[in-house]
């Protein structure tokens, strides 16, 4: 199994207990840079993989494929961790690596352990108080939308479909013993609650 582990914003005290446990139990740990390697060092020896900061997708795809080829064999029967700064699901190197793994090595199971992201780190360090809707962007086209407190999920989904969104996930009470995750559009309930989330994507 290949697990992307969020190491947080850079403070070693902000690693989660689950992140530390995964690092300690890993067969092998990889990271994309020195900062991540330093955070991992108290728990595991990490190998740095090169991921150049480029916009040339032909070069990037070749790098991602090369790294995926190397990780695939080790991940089939062992716990392999890829640790990175922030959270592995938001603007992350692991997102691209996971996509390539799923395409070329669908038999390798992948998962993620969330970490404190730059978004929540920013709020903590600047004293920002966000209590209503906000937008996060890196300047690219918006292909995703997250709706919190989704008490009427089907109604929300229907409004998003009019805007071109075509793939939806409904979640409720995540990481609790009452967790619900539904990815089939037809099975999403009419009613949600305060802990319900609708995730919408524009899938080509």
Q: What shape does the CA trace take?
A: globular
Count all strands and give the number.
9
| Poorly predicted spans | none
Determine the N-to-C terminus distance: 28 Å
CATH topology of the largest domain: Cobalt-precorrin-4 Transmethylase, domain 1
Which architecture of the largest domain per CATH?
3-Layer(aba) Sandwich
Round the Cα radius of gyration to an integer and report it.
18 Å
Core attributes:
Cobalt-precorrin-4 Transmethylase, domain 1; Methyltransferase, Cobalt-precorrin-4 Transmethylase, Domain 2; alpha/beta; single chain; 5-stranded parallel beta sheet; 2 domains
Account of the protein in words:
The chain is of the alpha/beta class and 204 residues long. The protein has two domains: 2-119, Tetrapyrrole methylase, N-terminal domain (Cobalt-precorrin-4 Transmethylase, domain 1, 3-Layer(aba) Sandwich), CATH 3.40.1010.10; 144-201, 2-Layer Sandwich (Methyltransferase, Cobalt-precorrin-4 Transmethylase, Domain 2). It has six helices and nine strands, in the order βαβαβαβαβαβαβββ. It has helices at residues 17-25, 34-40, 57-77, 93-104, 118-126, 153-161, and strands at 2-6, 28-31, 46-48, 80-84, 110-113, 144-148, 167-172, 180-182, 196-201. The strands form two sheets. It has a five-stranded parallel sheet, with helices on both faces. The model has no long low-confidence stretch (mean pLDDT 94).
